[in-house]
From TrEMBL, chain B:
Name by which UniProt lists this protein: ABC transporter ATP-binding protein
Pfam family, one: ABC_tran
Keyword annotations from UniProtKB, A to Z: ATP-binding, Nucleotide-binding, Transport
Species the sequence originates in: Bradyrhizobium frederickii
Gene3D superfamilies on file: P-loop containing nucleotide triphosphate hydrolases (3.40.50.300)
Entry GO terms, CC: plasma membrane
Family matches, as InterPro entries: AAA+_ATPase (IPR003593), ABC_AA/LPS_Transport (IPR051120), ABC_transporter-like_ATP-bd (IPR003439), P-loop_NTPase (IPR027417)
PANTHER family (UniProt xref): ABC TRANSPORTER ATP-BINDING PROTEIN, CONSERVED COMPONENT OF ABC TRANSPORTER FOR NATURAL AMINO ACIDS-RELATED
Protein backbone atom coordinates (compact mmCIF):
# COMPACT_ATOMS: atom_id res chain seq x y z
CA UNK A 1 0.00 0.00 0.00
CA UNK A 2 1.34 3.41 -0.89
CA UNK A 3 2.32 5.54 2.03
CA UNK A 4 0.83 8.78 0.76
CA UNK A 5 -2.55 8.55 -1.12
CA UNK A 6 -5.63 8.07 1.04
CA UNK A 7 -6.80 5.43 -1.32
CA UNK A 8 -9.27 7.98 -2.56
CA UNK A 9 -8.06 9.87 -5.59
CA UNK A 10 -9.15 13.43 -5.03
CA UNK A 11 -9.13 15.80 -7.97
CA UNK A 12 -5.75 17.57 -8.39
CA UNK A 13 -7.28 20.89 -7.44
CA UNK A 14 -8.16 19.49 -4.01
CA UNK A 15 -4.58 18.42 -3.45
CA UNK A 16 -3.37 21.82 -4.61
CA UNK A 17 -5.74 23.49 -2.20
CA UNK A 18 -4.57 21.27 0.65
CA UNK A 19 -0.98 22.29 0.03
CA UNK A 20 -1.70 25.97 -0.10
CA UNK A 21 -3.69 26.13 3.16
CA UNK A 22 -2.15 28.53 5.64
CA UNK A 23 -0.35 26.20 8.02
CA UNK A 24 0.15 28.92 10.56
CA UNK A 25 -3.57 28.82 11.30
CA UNK A 26 -2.86 25.61 13.19
CA UNK A 27 -0.87 27.57 15.72
CA UNK A 28 -2.89 30.75 15.87
CA UNK A 29 -4.61 31.64 19.11
CA UNK A 30 -2.76 29.03 21.11
CA UNK A 31 -2.78 30.00 24.75
CA UNK A 32 0.29 29.13 26.71
CA UNK A 33 -0.67 28.88 30.35
CA UNK A 34 0.85 25.44 30.77
CA UNK A 35 4.54 26.19 30.01
CA UNK A 36 4.41 29.25 32.23
CA UNK A 37 2.90 27.26 35.08
CA UNK A 38 5.44 24.48 34.65
CA UNK A 39 8.36 26.91 34.64
CA UNK A 40 7.05 28.80 37.67
CA UNK A 41 6.67 25.59 39.64
CA UNK A 42 10.13 24.44 38.64
CA UNK A 43 11.68 27.72 39.78
CA UNK A 44 9.76 27.61 43.05
CA UNK A 45 10.80 24.01 43.67
CA UNK A 46 14.44 24.83 42.84
CA UNK A 47 14.79 27.61 45.38
CA UNK A 48 12.62 26.04 48.08
CA UNK A 49 15.46 24.34 50.05
CA UNK A 50 17.38 27.63 50.13
CA UNK A 51 14.60 29.38 51.98
CA UNK A 52 12.93 26.56 53.92
CA UNK A 53 14.07 25.20 57.25
CA UNK A 54 15.74 21.78 57.06
CA UNK A 55 12.91 19.77 58.56
CA UNK A 56 10.54 21.25 55.99
CA UNK A 57 12.96 20.41 53.20
CA UNK A 58 12.84 16.80 54.38
CA UNK A 59 9.06 16.93 54.28
CA UNK A 60 9.17 18.56 50.83
CA UNK A 61 11.40 15.74 49.56
CA UNK A 62 8.77 13.24 50.63
CA UNK A 63 6.15 15.31 48.80
CA UNK A 64 8.22 15.32 45.59
CA UNK A 65 8.54 11.53 45.80
CA UNK A 66 4.76 11.33 46.14
CA UNK A 67 4.42 13.69 43.14
CA UNK A 68 6.31 11.13 41.10
CA UNK A 69 3.96 8.45 42.41
CA UNK A 70 0.97 10.62 41.44
CA UNK A 71 2.36 11.03 37.91
CA UNK A 72 2.25 7.26 37.56
CA UNK A 73 -1.46 7.23 38.38
CA UNK A 74 -2.23 10.17 36.11
CA UNK A 75 -0.65 8.32 33.19
CA UNK A 76 -3.00 5.37 33.53
CA UNK A 77 -6.18 7.12 34.64
CA UNK A 78 -5.88 10.59 33.15
CA UNK A 79 -4.50 9.47 29.81
CA UNK A 80 -5.57 5.90 29.20
CA UNK A 81 -8.76 5.63 31.24
CA UNK A 82 -7.51 2.69 33.33
CA UNK A 83 -8.76 3.11 36.89
CA UNK A 84 -5.87 1.41 38.67
CA UNK A 85 -6.52 1.15 42.39
CA UNK A 86 -3.35 -0.86 42.79
CA UNK A 87 -0.60 1.66 42.08
CA UNK A 88 0.70 1.09 45.63
CA UNK A 89 1.43 -2.48 44.63
CA UNK A 90 4.22 -1.30 42.31
CA UNK A 91 5.29 1.45 44.71
CA UNK A 92 5.48 -0.92 47.66
CA UNK A 93 6.96 -3.91 45.82
CA UNK A 94 9.79 -1.75 44.54
CA UNK A 95 10.24 -0.30 48.03
CA UNK A 96 10.46 -3.78 49.58
CA UNK A 97 12.66 -4.95 46.70
CA UNK A 98 15.33 -2.30 47.22
CA UNK A 99 15.07 -2.68 51.00
CA UNK A 100 15.91 -6.37 50.59
CA UNK A 101 18.76 -5.54 48.21
CA UNK A 102 20.15 -3.29 50.90
CA UNK A 103 19.53 -5.60 53.87
CA UNK A 104 20.50 -8.94 52.35
CA UNK A 105 23.07 -7.98 49.73
CA UNK A 106 24.41 -4.68 50.98
CA UNK A 107 23.56 -3.02 47.66
CA UNK A 108 22.83 0.69 48.05
CA UNK A 109 24.33 2.35 44.98
CA UNK A 110 21.85 4.65 43.32
CA UNK A 111 22.83 3.20 39.95
CA UNK A 112 21.68 -0.22 41.08
CA UNK A 113 18.70 0.45 43.30
CA UNK A 114 16.78 2.96 41.18
CA UNK A 115 16.89 0.84 38.00
CA UNK A 116 16.01 -2.18 40.16
CA UNK A 117 13.00 -0.35 41.59
CA UNK A 118 11.83 0.74 38.14
CA UNK A 119 12.27 -2.78 36.82
CA UNK A 120 10.33 -4.35 39.69
CA UNK A 121 7.46 -1.92 39.10
CA UNK A 122 7.57 -2.48 35.35
CA UNK A 123 7.56 -6.28 35.55
CA UNK A 124 4.90 -6.41 38.27
CA UNK A 125 2.64 -4.09 36.23
CA UNK A 126 3.23 -6.06 33.06
CA UNK A 127 2.32 -9.33 34.81
CA UNK A 128 -0.82 -7.79 36.28
CA UNK A 129 -1.70 -6.35 32.87
CA UNK A 130 -1.36 -9.85 31.46
CA UNK A 131 -4.17 -10.98 33.75
CA UNK A 132 -6.35 -7.90 33.74
CA UNK A 133 -5.93 -6.14 30.41
CA UNK A 134 -4.62 -8.50 27.78
CA UNK A 135 -7.72 -10.61 27.16
CA UNK A 136 -8.98 -11.09 23.63
CA UNK A 137 -11.75 -8.60 24.34
CA UNK A 138 -11.30 -5.35 26.28
CA UNK A 139 -11.98 -5.64 30.00
CA UNK A 140 -14.30 -3.28 31.83
CA UNK A 141 -13.14 -0.40 34.03
CA UNK A 142 -14.75 -2.01 37.08
CA UNK A 143 -13.01 -5.32 36.46
CA UNK A 144 -9.63 -3.64 36.20
CA UNK A 145 -10.09 -1.40 39.22
CA UNK A 146 -11.30 -4.25 41.43
CA UNK A 147 -8.55 -6.49 40.11
CA UNK A 148 -5.80 -3.98 40.88
CA UNK A 149 -7.32 -3.19 44.26
CA UNK A 150 -7.42 -6.88 45.16
CA UNK A 151 -3.77 -7.13 44.18
CA UNK A 152 -2.82 -4.29 46.51
CA UNK A 153 -4.88 -5.71 49.37
CA UNK A 154 -3.42 -9.18 48.95
CA UNK A 155 0.15 -7.85 48.84
CA UNK A 156 -0.44 -5.83 52.00
CA UNK A 157 -1.75 -8.91 53.86
CA UNK A 158 1.02 -11.15 52.56
CA UNK A 159 3.70 -8.69 53.67
CA UNK A 160 2.13 -8.46 57.13
CA UNK A 161 2.20 -12.22 57.48
CA UNK A 162 5.69 -12.78 56.13
CA UNK A 163 8.51 -13.23 58.62
CA UNK A 164 11.09 -12.68 55.87
CA UNK A 165 9.57 -9.28 55.05
CA UNK A 166 9.45 -8.26 58.71
CA UNK A 167 5.71 -8.73 59.24
CA UNK A 168 3.78 -5.76 60.64
CA UNK A 169 6.95 -3.79 61.28
CA UNK A 170 8.36 -4.04 57.79
CA UNK A 171 12.06 -3.64 57.19
CA UNK A 172 13.66 -0.99 59.41
CA UNK A 173 16.94 0.91 59.24
CA UNK A 174 17.78 0.64 55.56
CA UNK A 175 21.33 1.89 54.91
CA UNK A 176 21.50 5.21 53.05
CA UNK A 177 21.65 5.25 49.26
CA UNK A 178 25.13 5.95 47.87
CA UNK A 179 26.50 7.78 44.85
CA UNK A 180 30.06 6.49 44.54
CA UNK A 181 31.48 6.88 48.03
CA UNK A 182 29.05 9.64 49.00
CA UNK A 183 26.15 8.70 51.26
CA UNK A 184 22.84 10.41 50.56
CA UNK A 185 20.91 11.17 53.69
CA UNK A 186 17.79 13.28 53.93
CA UNK A 187 18.21 17.00 53.35
CA UNK A 188 18.85 19.35 50.41
CA UNK A 189 21.06 16.81 48.56
CA UNK A 190 18.33 14.19 48.51
CA UNK A 191 15.79 16.88 47.67
CA UNK A 192 17.62 17.99 44.55
CA UNK A 193 18.17 14.40 43.46
CA UNK A 194 14.44 13.71 43.67
CA UNK A 195 13.64 16.99 41.94
CA UNK A 196 15.97 16.11 39.06
CA UNK A 197 14.39 12.65 38.67
CA UNK A 198 10.89 14.11 38.85
CA UNK A 199 11.68 16.70 36.17
CA UNK A 200 13.30 14.10 33.94
CA UNK A 201 10.37 11.67 34.20
CA UNK A 202 7.89 14.51 33.82
CA UNK A 203 9.57 15.63 30.59
CA UNK A 204 9.76 12.08 29.22
CA UNK A 205 6.06 11.55 29.99
CA UNK A 206 5.20 14.88 28.42
CA UNK A 207 7.11 13.98 25.29
CA UNK A 208 5.32 10.64 25.02
CA UNK A 209 1.87 12.08 25.69
CA UNK A 210 2.26 14.84 23.10
CA UNK A 211 3.36 12.32 20.47
CA UNK A 212 1.16 10.36 18.11
CA UNK A 213 1.15 7.65 20.79
CA UNK A 214 -0.42 10.24 23.08
CA UNK A 215 -3.08 10.85 20.44
CA UNK A 216 -3.85 7.13 20.40
CA UNK A 217 -4.17 7.27 24.21
CA UNK A 218 -6.48 10.26 23.97
CA UNK A 219 -8.64 8.23 21.60
CA UNK A 220 -8.53 5.32 24.02
CA UNK A 221 -9.72 7.50 26.89
CA UNK A 222 -12.48 9.14 24.85
CA UNK A 223 -13.92 6.13 23.07
CA UNK A 224 -12.14 2.84 23.34
CA UNK A 225 -14.58 0.98 21.11
CA UNK A 226 -14.34 3.53 18.33
CA UNK A 227 -10.58 3.34 17.99
CA UNK A 228 -10.66 -0.46 18.06
CA UNK A 229 -12.67 -0.16 14.84
CA UNK A 230 -9.80 1.87 13.35
CA UNK A 231 -7.56 -1.14 13.94
CA UNK A 232 -5.84 -0.08 17.17
CA UNK A 233 -4.94 -2.96 19.46
CA UNK A 234 -6.39 -1.23 22.49
CA UNK A 235 -5.36 -3.92 24.96
CA UNK A 236 -1.72 -3.59 23.91
CA UNK A 237 -1.82 0.18 24.23
CA UNK A 238 -3.24 -0.17 27.73
CA UNK A 239 -0.73 -2.80 28.80
CA UNK A 240 2.16 -0.64 27.61
CA UNK A 241 1.06 2.49 29.43
CA UNK A 242 0.24 0.41 32.51
CA UNK A 243 3.75 -1.08 32.54
CA UNK A 244 5.38 2.34 32.04
CA UNK A 245 3.32 3.68 34.90
CA UNK A 246 4.42 0.68 37.00
CA UNK A 247 8.05 1.58 36.33
CA UNK A 248 7.45 5.16 37.47
CA UNK A 249 5.62 4.02 40.62
CA UNK A 250 8.53 1.64 41.26
CA UNK A 251 11.10 4.42 40.94
CA UNK A 252 9.09 6.48 43.35
CA UNK A 253 8.74 3.57 45.80
CA UNK A 254 12.48 2.89 45.88
CA UNK A 255 13.24 6.58 46.49
CA UNK A 256 10.67 6.54 49.29
CA UNK A 257 12.26 3.49 50.93
CA UNK A 258 15.71 5.10 51.05
CA UNK A 259 14.41 8.50 52.04
CA UNK A 260 12.41 7.19 54.98
CA UNK A 261 14.97 4.54 55.85
CA UNK A 262 12.36 1.83 56.27
CA UNK A 263 9.48 0.12 54.46
CA UNK A 264 6.27 -1.17 56.00
CA UNK A 265 3.16 -2.96 54.71
CA UNK A 266 1.09 0.24 54.34
CA UNK A 267 3.25 1.12 51.34
CA UNK A 268 1.62 -1.79 49.50
CA UNK A 269 -1.92 -1.33 50.68
CA UNK A 270 -5.18 0.07 49.45
CA UNK A 271 -4.95 3.27 51.52
CA UNK A 272 -1.77 4.27 49.71
CA UNK A 273 -3.47 3.55 46.38
CA UNK A 274 -6.51 5.64 47.12
CA UNK A 275 -4.36 8.47 48.47
CA UNK A 276 -2.75 8.83 45.06
CA UNK A 277 -6.17 8.81 43.40
CA UNK A 278 -7.13 11.76 45.61
CA UNK A 279 -3.99 13.73 44.76
CA UNK A 280 -4.72 13.42 41.06
CA UNK A 281 -8.45 14.12 41.24
CA UNK A 282 -7.77 17.14 43.45
CA UNK A 283 -5.16 18.59 41.12
CA UNK A 284 -6.84 17.57 37.86
CA UNK A 285 -6.28 14.35 35.95
CA UNK A 286 -4.97 14.13 32.41
CA UNK A 287 -2.61 17.09 32.67
CA UNK A 288 0.54 15.71 34.39
CA UNK A 289 1.00 19.09 36.08
CA UNK A 290 -2.32 18.57 37.86
CA UNK A 291 -0.92 15.46 39.56
CA UNK A 292 2.08 17.43 40.81
CA UNK A 293 -0.01 20.39 41.96
CA UNK A 294 -2.58 18.14 43.60
CA UNK A 295 0.01 16.20 45.57
CA UNK A 296 1.84 19.34 46.66
CA UNK A 297 -1.33 21.09 47.80
CA UNK A 298 -2.90 18.12 49.60
CA UNK A 299 0.34 17.29 51.39
CA UNK A 300 1.17 20.95 52.05
CA UNK A 301 -2.29 21.56 53.47
CA UNK A 302 -2.22 18.53 55.72
CA UNK A 303 1.18 19.62 57.02
CA UNK A 304 -0.04 23.10 57.81
CA UNK A 305 -3.46 22.05 59.09
CA UNK A 306 -2.09 19.35 61.37
CA UNK A 307 0.14 21.99 62.96
CA UNK A 308 -2.59 24.54 63.48
CA UNK A 309 -5.77 22.51 63.96
CA UNK A 310 -4.39 19.47 65.67
CA UNK A 311 -7.71 17.76 66.37
CA UNK A 312 -9.95 18.51 63.43
CA UNK A 313 -7.51 18.83 60.52
CA UNK A 314 -8.55 15.60 58.75
CA UNK A 315 -12.14 16.86 58.69
CA UNK A 316 -11.13 20.21 57.18
CA UNK A 317 -9.01 18.46 54.57
CA UNK A 318 -11.78 16.01 53.75
CA UNK A 319 -14.31 18.81 53.26
CA UNK A 320 -11.88 20.70 51.00
CA UNK A 321 -11.30 17.61 48.86
CA UNK A 322 -15.01 17.04 48.62
CA UNK A 323 -15.67 20.65 47.59
CA UNK A 324 -13.08 20.50 44.81
CA UNK A 325 -14.40 17.21 43.49
CA UNK A 326 -17.99 18.52 43.58
CA UNK A 327 -17.41 21.95 42.08
CA UNK A 328 -14.28 21.49 39.97
CA UNK A 329 -14.59 17.92 38.68
CA UNK A 330 -11.63 18.59 36.39
CA UNK A 331 -9.52 19.50 39.41
CA UNK A 332 -7.94 22.67 40.69
CA UNK A 333 -5.86 22.96 37.55
CA UNK A 334 -9.02 23.70 35.55
CA UNK A 335 -9.08 27.12 37.23
CA UNK A 336 -6.12 28.19 35.12
CA UNK A 337 -5.98 25.66 32.32
CA UNK A 338 -8.62 25.73 29.57
CA UNK A 339 -10.15 22.62 28.01
CA UNK A 340 -8.39 23.20 24.69
CA UNK A 341 -4.97 23.34 26.27
CA UNK A 342 -5.67 20.46 28.62
CA UNK A 343 -6.50 18.12 25.76
CA UNK A 344 -3.85 19.61 23.50
CA UNK A 345 -3.24 19.20 19.79
CA UNK A 346 -1.34 16.48 18.08
CA UNK A 347 -0.85 17.87 14.58
CA UNK A 348 2.67 18.15 13.24
CA UNK A 349 5.09 20.89 14.18
CA UNK A 350 5.89 23.48 11.53
CA UNK A 351 9.29 21.86 11.06
CA UNK A 352 7.80 18.44 10.43
CA UNK A 353 5.40 19.93 7.90
CA UNK A 354 8.21 21.67 6.10
CA UNK A 355 10.22 18.46 5.93
CA UNK A 356 7.21 16.59 4.59
CA UNK A 357 6.52 19.17 1.89
CA UNK A 358 7.60 17.92 -1.53
CA UNK B 1 -15.37 -13.84 -6.25
CA UNK B 2 -17.38 -11.44 -4.07
CA UNK B 3 -15.57 -9.13 -1.65
CA UNK B 4 -17.90 -9.94 1.21
CA UNK B 5 -20.15 -12.89 1.69
CA UNK B 6 -22.37 -13.52 4.67
CA UNK B 7 -24.25 -16.81 4.74
CA UNK B 8 -26.90 -18.14 7.12
CA UNK B 9 -26.20 -15.44 9.71
CA UNK B 10 -28.41 -15.66 12.79
CA UNK B 11 -28.29 -13.66 15.98
CA UNK B 12 -30.37 -14.57 19.01
CA UNK B 13 -30.69 -12.30 22.06
CA UNK B 14 -32.33 -14.39 24.76
CA UNK B 15 -35.80 -15.10 23.38
CA UNK B 16 -35.55 -12.59 20.55
CA UNK B 17 -34.30 -13.77 17.18
CA UNK B 18 -33.01 -10.57 15.60
CA UNK B 19 -31.52 -12.27 12.56
CA UNK B 20 -32.64 -15.58 11.13
CA UNK B 21 -30.34 -17.02 8.50
CA UNK B 22 -29.67 -13.78 6.64
CA UNK B 23 -27.39 -13.78 3.61
CA UNK B 24 -25.59 -10.93 1.88
CA UNK B 25 -23.15 -10.79 -1.01
CA UNK B 26 -21.24 -7.66 -1.93
CA UNK B 27 -19.00 -7.43 -4.98
CA UNK B 28 -15.86 -5.37 -5.43
CA UNK B 29 -16.65 -1.63 -5.69
CA UNK B 30 -20.35 -2.30 -5.34
CA UNK B 31 -22.63 0.03 -3.38
CA UNK B 32 -25.09 -2.21 -1.59
CA UNK B 33 -28.09 -0.89 0.29
CA UNK B 34 -29.65 -2.70 3.23
CA UNK B 35 -33.28 -1.74 3.72
CA UNK B 36 -36.28 -2.96 5.64
CA UNK B 37 -38.78 -1.85 8.28
CA UNK B 38 -37.72 -0.93 11.82
CA UNK B 39 -36.64 -3.99 13.76
CA UNK B 40 -36.00 -6.04 10.63
CA UNK B 41 -32.40 -6.73 11.69
CA UNK B 42 -30.46 -4.28 9.50
CA UNK B 43 -28.29 -2.85 12.25
CA UNK B 44 -27.76 -6.27 13.80
CA UNK B 45 -26.53 -7.61 10.47
CA UNK B 46 -24.18 -4.63 10.13
CA UNK B 47 -22.79 -5.27 13.59
CA UNK B 48 -22.23 -8.93 12.76
CA UNK B 49 -20.37 -7.86 9.62
CA UNK B 50 -18.23 -5.33 11.50
CA UNK B 51 -17.46 -7.59 14.45
CA UNK B 52 -19.34 -5.55 17.05
CA UNK B 53 -21.49 -8.66 17.54
CA UNK B 54 -20.58 -12.30 17.06
CA UNK B 55 -23.32 -14.17 15.18
CA UNK B 56 -25.01 -17.09 16.93
CA UNK B 57 -24.80 -19.09 13.71
CA UNK B 58 -23.52 -18.49 10.19
CA UNK B 59 -20.37 -17.41 8.48
CA UNK B 60 -18.91 -14.13 7.22
CA UNK B 61 -16.22 -14.28 4.55
CA UNK B 62 -14.21 -11.21 3.59
CA UNK B 63 -11.63 -11.27 0.76
CA UNK B 64 -11.55 -15.08 0.85
CA UNK B 65 -10.97 -15.19 4.61
CA UNK B 66 -13.39 -16.41 7.26
CA UNK B 67 -13.73 -13.40 9.56
CA UNK B 68 -16.73 -14.60 11.57
CA UNK B 69 -14.92 -14.63 14.90
CA UNK B 70 -12.28 -11.94 14.32
CA UNK B 71 -12.23 -8.95 16.68
CA UNK B 72 -12.94 -5.43 15.35
CA UNK B 73 -9.24 -4.39 15.19
CA UNK B 74 -8.44 -7.55 13.24
CA UNK B 75 -11.23 -6.83 10.79
CA UNK B 76 -10.15 -3.21 10.48
CA UNK B 77 -6.65 -4.36 9.62
CA UNK B 78 -8.11 -6.71 7.00
CA UNK B 79 -9.74 -3.70 5.31
CA UNK B 80 -13.17 -3.24 6.84
CA UNK B 81 -14.35 0.04 8.28
CA UNK B 82 -17.52 0.99 10.14
CA UNK B 83 -19.35 4.22 10.73
CA UNK B 84 -21.57 3.83 13.77
CA UNK B 85 -25.24 4.71 13.78
CA UNK B 86 -24.72 7.03 16.72
CA UNK B 87 -22.01 9.51 15.85
CA UNK B 88 -18.84 8.61 17.67
CA UNK B 89 -16.38 11.34 16.79
CA UNK B 90 -13.97 12.12 19.61
CA UNK B 91 -15.52 15.36 20.86
CA UNK B 92 -12.65 17.02 22.71
CA UNK B 93 -10.10 16.42 19.97
CA UNK B 94 -9.79 18.74 16.99
CA UNK B 95 -11.10 17.63 13.60
CA UNK B 96 -7.53 17.40 12.46
CA UNK B 97 -6.63 15.04 15.31
CA UNK B 98 -9.75 12.94 14.74
CA UNK B 99 -8.62 12.25 11.17
CA UNK B 100 -4.97 11.79 12.15
CA UNK B 101 -6.03 9.26 14.76
CA UNK B 102 -7.76 7.21 12.09
CA UNK B 103 -4.94 7.59 9.56
CA UNK B 104 -2.16 6.55 11.92
CA UNK B 105 -3.94 3.42 13.17
CA UNK B 106 -1.54 1.15 11.34
CA UNK B 107 1.68 2.95 12.23
CA UNK B 108 4.00 0.92 14.46
CA UNK B 109 4.15 1.77 18.15
CA UNK B 110 7.70 3.10 17.83
CA UNK B 111 6.68 5.37 14.97
CA UNK B 112 3.83 6.61 17.15
CA UNK B 113 6.02 7.20 20.21
CA UNK B 114 8.51 9.25 18.21
CA UNK B 115 5.82 10.87 16.03
CA UNK B 116 7.58 9.72 12.90
CA UNK B 117 4.53 9.59 10.64
CA UNK B 118 2.61 12.77 11.43
CA UNK B 119 4.68 14.98 9.10
CA UNK B 120 4.05 12.56 6.25
CA UNK B 121 0.33 12.24 7.04
CA UNK B 122 -0.31 15.98 7.23
CA UNK B 123 -1.22 16.34 3.56
CA UNK B 124 -3.56 13.35 3.70
CA UNK B 125 -5.34 14.76 6.75
CA UNK B 126 -5.88 18.10 5.04
CA UNK B 127 -7.02 16.40 1.82
CA UNK B 128 -9.62 14.37 3.69
CA UNK B 129 -10.88 17.48 5.50
CA UNK B 130 -11.13 19.41 2.24
CA UNK B 131 -12.98 16.61 0.52
CA UNK B 132 -15.54 16.54 3.27
CA UNK B 133 -15.82 20.33 3.35
CA UNK B 134 -14.44 20.61 6.87
CA UNK B 135 -11.01 22.13 6.25
CA UNK B 136 -11.89 25.56 7.60
CA UNK B 137 -12.82 23.98 10.93
CA UNK B 138 -9.69 21.80 11.09
CA UNK B 139 -8.50 23.06 14.46
CA UNK B 140 -11.83 23.34 16.24
CA UNK B 141 -12.96 20.66 18.66
CA UNK B 142 -15.19 18.07 17.00
CA UNK B 143 -17.90 18.75 19.58
CA UNK B 144 -18.48 22.19 18.04
CA UNK B 145 -19.64 20.76 14.69
CA UNK B 146 -23.27 20.54 13.64
CA UNK B 147 -24.84 17.09 13.62
CA UNK B 148 -24.53 16.77 9.84
CA UNK B 149 -20.91 17.84 9.89
CA UNK B 150 -20.16 15.30 12.61
CA UNK B 151 -21.59 12.61 10.34
CA UNK B 152 -19.28 13.75 7.54
CA UNK B 153 -16.33 13.76 9.89
CA UNK B 154 -17.22 10.19 10.85
CA UNK B 155 -17.39 9.10 7.24
CA UNK B 156 -14.05 10.81 6.63
CA UNK B 157 -12.57 8.97 9.62
CA UNK B 158 -13.96 5.66 8.45
CA UNK B 159 -12.45 6.25 5.00
CA UNK B 160 -9.12 7.39 6.43
CA UNK B 161 -8.42 3.78 7.44
CA UNK B 162 -8.22 3.06 3.69
CA UNK B 163 -10.83 0.30 3.76
CA UNK B 164 -11.80 -2.06 0.96
CA UNK B 165 -15.29 -2.16 2.45
CA UNK B 166 -17.06 0.64 4.25
CA UNK B 167 -20.08 -0.12 6.43
CA UNK B 168 -22.31 2.91 6.94
CA UNK B 169 -25.11 2.69 9.46
CA UNK B 170 -27.61 5.48 8.72
CA UNK B 171 -25.20 8.11 7.45
CA UNK B 172 -27.94 10.69 6.79
CA UNK B 173 -29.80 10.26 10.10
CA UNK B 174 -30.91 13.67 11.34
CA UNK B 175 -29.66 15.51 8.25
CA UNK B 176 -31.41 18.25 6.29
CA UNK B 177 -32.35 17.65 2.65
CA UNK B 178 -29.42 19.72 1.46
CA UNK B 179 -27.03 17.84 3.73
CA UNK B 180 -28.35 14.53 2.36
CA UNK B 181 -27.71 15.67 -1.18
CA UNK B 182 -24.14 16.66 -0.31
CA UNK B 183 -23.58 13.35 1.49
CA UNK B 184 -24.53 11.53 -1.70
CA UNK B 185 -22.01 13.61 -3.61
CA UNK B 186 -19.33 12.97 -1.03
CA UNK B 187 -19.83 9.22 -1.25
CA UNK B 188 -19.65 8.95 -5.05
CA UNK B 189 -15.85 9.24 -5.47
CA UNK B 190 -15.06 6.42 -3.04
CA UNK B 191 -16.44 3.94 -5.56
CA UNK B 192 -13.06 4.02 -7.29
CA UNK B 193 -11.50 1.87 -4.61
CA UNK B 194 -14.06 0.76 -2.06
CA UNK B 195 -17.29 -1.17 -1.66
CA UNK B 196 -20.07 0.11 0.49
CA UNK B 197 -22.80 -1.47 2.59
CA UNK B 198 -25.26 1.14 3.72
CA UNK B 199 -28.24 0.98 6.08
CA UNK B 200 -30.61 3.84 5.47
CA UNK B 201 -34.24 4.82 5.96
CA UNK B 202 -34.26 7.41 3.19
CA UNK B 203 -35.25 5.31 0.18
CA UNK B 204 -34.67 8.13 -2.33
CA UNK B 205 -31.15 8.54 -1.08
CA UNK B 206 -30.44 4.82 -1.25
CA UNK B 207 -31.98 4.47 -4.73
CA UNK B 208 -29.71 7.23 -6.00
CA UNK B 209 -26.40 5.85 -4.86
CA UNK B 210 -26.77 2.05 -4.61
CA UNK B 211 -26.18 -0.60 -7.29
CA UNK B 212 -27.91 -3.41 -5.48
CA UNK B 213 -30.33 -3.71 -2.58
CA UNK B 214 -31.12 -6.34 0.00
CA UNK B 215 -34.43 -6.15 1.81
CA UNK B 216 -34.71 -7.57 5.32
CA UNK B 217 -37.96 -8.34 7.07
CA UNK B 218 -38.21 -9.92 10.52
CA UNK B 219 -34.61 -11.04 10.43
CA UNK B 220 -34.88 -12.78 7.07
CA UNK B 221 -33.88 -11.73 3.58
CA UNK B 222 -37.05 -10.92 1.67
CA UNK B 223 -35.41 -10.04 -1.62
CA UNK B 224 -32.05 -9.13 -3.08
CA UNK B 225 -31.21 -7.69 -6.48
CA UNK B 226 -30.62 -4.56 -8.52
CA UNK B 227 -32.47 -1.41 -7.61
CA UNK B 228 -34.88 -1.88 -10.54
CA UNK B 229 -35.62 -5.49 -9.59
CA UNK B 230 -36.35 -4.57 -5.99
CA UNK B 231 -38.60 -1.70 -7.01
CA UNK B 232 -40.61 -4.08 -9.14
CA UNK B 233 -40.79 -6.75 -6.43
CA UNK B 234 -44.33 -7.40 -5.21
CA UNK B 235 -43.58 -8.55 -1.67
CA UNK B 236 -41.23 -5.64 -1.07
CA UNK B 237 -43.93 -3.21 -2.16
CA UNK B 238 -46.27 -4.95 0.23
CA UNK B 239 -44.13 -4.55 3.35
CA UNK B 240 -43.51 -0.92 2.58
CA UNK B 241 -47.19 -0.34 1.82
CA UNK B 242 -48.10 -2.14 5.01
CA UNK B 243 -45.79 0.17 6.91
CA UNK B 244 -47.08 3.27 5.16
Amino acid sequence: MSSTGTGIQPPPRVIEAARSLPLASAFAGRTKVLPILELALLIAASIAPLVLRDYITVYATRVLILCLFALSFDLVWGYAGILSLGQSLFFGMAGYGVALLSRDFGVGSIFAVLPAGALIGFVAALLLAGFLLLGRHPSSVVFVSLGTMTGAYAADRLARGSHYLGGQNGIPSIQPMTIGSHELSEGPGFYYLVLAILVLIYLLSRFLLRSQFGLALAGLRENEQRIAFFGYKVQHLKAIIFAISGAIAGTSGSLYAFHEGFVWPNMLGVVMSTQVVLYVLFGGSGTLIGAVVGTAIVEGLSFWLSDNYRDIWPIILGVLLLLVILFRPLGLISLVLGERERVGRFGPSLKEKRNAAP
Amino acid sequence: MPLLEAAGVSKVFGKLTALDGAALTVGDREFHGLIGPNGSGKSTLMKCLAGALVPTRGKVTFINTDVTSLTPPERARAGMSLKFQITAVLPTLTLYDNILLALQARSSLLDLAFSRTRGRLHEEVMTMLLQFRLADRAFDAAATLSHGQQQWLEIAMALACRPRLLLLDEPTGGMSLEERRVTGELLQPIKQHCSLVIVEHDLDFIRDICDRLTVLDQGKVLASGTVAEIQANRSVQEIYLRRA
